[in-house]
Design goal:
Blueprint: H1 10-13, H2 42-65, H3 72-103, H4 110-147, H5 152-155, H6 158-181, H7 186-224, H8 229-266, H9 271-277, H10 280-299, H11 303-316
InterPro entries: GPCR_Rhodpsn, GPCR_Rhodpsn_7TM, Melcrt_ACTH_rcpt, MSH_rcpt
GO molecular function, one term: ubiquitin protein ligase binding
Membrane topology: Multi-pass membrane protein
Length: 317
Amino acid sequence: MPLQGPQRRLLGSLNSTLPATPYLGLTTNQTEPPCLEVSIPDGLFLSLGLVSLVENVLVVTAIAKNRNLHSPMYYFICCLAVSDLLVSMSNVLEMAILLLLEAGVLATRASVLQQLDNVIDVLICGSMVSSLCFLGGIAVDRYISIFYALRYHSIMMLPRVWRAIAAIWVVSVLSSTLFIAYYNHTAVLLCLVTFFVAMLVLMAVLYVHMLARACQHARGIARLHKRQHPIHQGFGLKGAATLTILLGVFFLCWGPFFLHLSLLILCPQHPTCGCVFKNFKLFLTLILCSAIVDPLIYAFRSQELRKTLQEVLLCSW
């Protein structure tokens, strides 16, 4: 880069074991083993970010427009879309600034660049934390709707839901600010990894329990109508496929990033771990892919939301 501005703190420092290593790569060493480094073109990274931006803006617009979608489940989906939107926007903004700096188009003082860097880092980290929280919130909402159906509206009252949403946003902003301020402490990485594992376990336990209940319900219906066993098997396979998609996408998109964090704790100087560190941009790209896939899984499967989205698009023409 023509301008040696301040490095990214949390996310930038995670790209290397050395604080002074630039964001877009690691220094090579002749004694290091050959590594598989996946190169992500800047144009592809920006394109994915823009697709995610448009997609999540449409989700937020559709939910805001249709009063029939003003329910706890859709509020969580809307907040997830906002979080994914912020993830995409902050990453696209940072990439655009880096490209402008490299091209010599953007010239600014180091102090201004430092403040901008801090703001973007807090935005990226906070939006990631909130995205994970709202994914967990959606799982909890669905669990309550199945296992406490008769009490659902008394449990998921709108004031209570709004307080939970506000708490998630506040905690996300405060925690991301602390993470950026103390980015070079191992405790920060431990907290992030622990948080991811907790969300993964929470979602796995809730969705597996929901699948078991659904299969049990299907068996009861089959016995009631004296149907054959293959019908129940087909339902179980469909439920297992849905569960695999939900947890698989979550793990594949977020897992590599948190594996990166775990290796920074366990083996920051090991050559093999260094090969993983070189693919940091790939891991951020997978998170952008998660922001693209989330609306397809949680929002666009709703017929009511798709209908509203069609109206929004038709009105815009």
